[in-house]
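Hi C.,

You asked whether I'd gotten around to modeling the 80-residue construct. I have! Everything is below, sequence then structure, no commentary in between.
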Amino acid sequence: MRAEQLEIDAFIRERISEDEVAALRVAGEVRRARELREIVSKRHILVFAQRHGGLLGDSMLRFLAHTWADHADFVDEWTL
């Protein structure tokens, strides 16, 4: 696994964890449940991308990271 991929993995894990904390504070049971399902989905995608690697895995990580493209720690090289 390339060093850049390790960095993007860590970036995504941190953002997902932040989103989970925020989702637990969301008012409304239906909305909170949907946001928590989205977080579980992102975690599954992350694991899938890590296991498959190569162009497919790299592309999937970039797709996920793009969600947080406005974050201060986002690296421009991750742009789609």
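If it helps when you're writing up: The chain has three helices and no strands.

Thanks,
B.
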